[in-house]
Structures are given as structure tokens and as C-alpha cells.
Amino acid sequence: MLLVEFIQAGGTQRLRGQIVQRPEKEDDVVNETCHERGHAVLKLVGLSKPGAPAHFLSFDATKKLAILSVRGTKTPADALTDLAGDIQQRDLEDGKKLYAHAGFLTAADSVLQSIRGAVRDLLAPLGYSLLVTGHSLGASTACLVTRLLYAEMTSWSSQLSSIRCVAFAPCPCMDAVNAAGCAESLDPSTSLVLSFVCNDDAVPRISMQNLGRLSLLGKGASVKEVLQLAVASRLRDSDQHLPGKVVVLHQNEEASSDDSKTSKRPGRWTAWAGNAPDFPEIGYVELSPKSITHHMAPVYREALAVVASKRGIALEAAARADEAFADWRLRVGDHADHAA
Fold first, then answer.
1. Cβ atoms of 203 and 296 closer than 8 Å
2. Domain Fungal lipase-type spans what residues (predicted)?
3. pLDDT band at residue 269, thresholds of 50, 70 and 90?
């Protein structure tokens, strides 16, 4: 609880020199990338603080589509938000109760405070749709921003044409009732939240109850026993779950006759869709050699590109799923040093 209070009290002021960096180059990249895709940036916050992640809001006037993107964990400030894992209760404007990860809920409040005026007073009256997205910390925050906005919009004089969240590698960040509610939407053909989980990614499996199940493995319980516990109906109201419809990107293990990495990739990824209870294997923390590498955004991009290509959709994605995490980190670090 002390960590939550520290975040909510703006404790970053005491640590500013250690936990934030000037983001001018990143701001330029965001602006240029949005411009290339026909979007204009309406709001851009490049510096993160504990409980206040970096984010931007852009819009396409032709399509009447706005995108809110929340950055994932990058700085120690972001890590403090991740670690504030207490559960907070919130009474929502649609009359429902929400139990949520305290750090992500604080982050969602911060993002909403930043963009609410533009969304409510400018975009909604003009009939815009809003797509909220993010990866990791950004995904968890995006899910809660979407749930809060969905409840809040009922009191607005003008409502968005539609609102939807596409979350990549979110943590379990809200209670079972709200998580299941996020699988529905005003549009029966879509869900309010679509959560993607990449194979062995540990992050979408991390919650207080799942960490407790991990301790059972350490005490000698079998995986079968832990799985049975994961699907049991004995849940607390505050237990955290992945929100919305869930798509698990599964990595096939078929061998390839060619030893080159490139030849192994086509067809290795498949997608399984359902609700979180349909996937008991994400009900406990999975420890594997790829628990971290499968959390990386490049792996998600490649997996989605392969799955999309099977459906005749071409996505641009570099083939980097087999790259070792250490090599990836070294390459990214070298690139950042050269850019500086």
C-alpha cells in the first residue's frame, strides 16, 4: 500500500533525475509515424512518471477514427506502476463495482485526465470512434481506460461512435465480472476489449492469485493440481483476470527440414480465440525459457503477421521471433546509443 500512496502522491518529484529522460527524439518518431499513416497527433505525453505512463492521442479526420496508444514499461517509473499490485475497489458510473490492479488503475486515471477533454468535448460530438491500445503496462492501462470510459460515456451529452481496446500482453488487471463484461460491446459483432497473449509470455499470467499458485508448484504440487485450482469456481470477487475476448497466439513445434531460422517460421503460429476461462493454462504463471522473449513486441508482431497471412492479410513484420533476448537487447541498446 505504501507504493500505491507514493505513486498517487506524485513521488516522482523526489526521483525525477533518476527515473525520467527527455523524450524529444521519441516524440519526433511518434509524430512522423502518425503522419505517415494519415493521423495527426492531438495529445502527446512522452515522459512517464509512477502511475502516469507515456501516451499519445491521434486522429484520422477522413475515417473519423482516433487512436489512444499507451506505452509499455520502459523506465524505473513504469516499473513502480507495475509493482503497485494491491487491489483497489471503484464504484463506476454505470452502477457496477470494479476491482482493479492499483498501479494500472492509477495509470488509467492519469491517462483519462490527460485526454478526457479532447475525447468528450471534441471527438465524441464529431462522431469519432476510439481505438485504445498498448503493450504490457500500456495494454493493462488501455484495458482499464476503456472500461472507465465505457462507463463514463453514459453521462456525456455526446457519445463516441464506438470504443474498443486491442491489448497486447496485458496483465490480469480487473475482476472476473468486469473482465467478462469486456467481452461484450454495444456492437454485437465485436468485443469491448480484445486481449492477445503470445504463447509462453509470462506477463499475462502474472496476478496475485497466480503468484500464489506458483508458490504451490514450489511446494511440490503438480501442474495438474495447479490447473485444477485455476479452473475451480472458488474465486474471490477481487481476483484479477484478463479482460475481454482473448486470443492466444500459439507456437507450433513442428520440425523443419531446413535448419535456417527463416525456413522454420512460415506456419509456425496459430491463433486460438475465446474467453479467459477457456484457457486454464493462463491461470498460472508458466516458467519456460521463452517466458520473457515471448513478451517482446517484435515476437507479437511476427506471430500476428504469420496468422494474418494465413487469412490473406499482409502485415509488415520483421522475422525476429527466434532472436535471443540478450541479442535483441544488445541490438536495441546499440541503436539507441547511436541515435543519441
1. no
2. 68-209
3. confident
DSSP readout, 138-190?
A: HHHHHHHHHHHHHHHGGGSSS--SEEEEEEESPPP-EEHHHHHHTT--SSTTS
User: What whole-number distance in Å separates Cα of residue 83 and Cα of residue 107?
Assistant: 12
What CA–CA distance (Å, rounded) separates 51 from 250? Answer: 32
pLDDT, tens digit, for every residue of 287-323? 778 888 899 998 899 888 888 887 777 666 544 444 4
Determine what percent of the chain is predicted with pLDDT higher than 70. 73
Cut 0.70: pTM above it: yes
Burial of 139 (0-12, 13-18, 19+ CB in 10 A): buried
The answer to whether 149 and 119 are in contact (CB under 8 A) is: yes
DSSP 227-276: HHHHH-S---TT-EE--SEEEEEEEP----SS-SHHHH-TT-EEEEEEEG
What single-letter amino acid sits at 100?
A: A
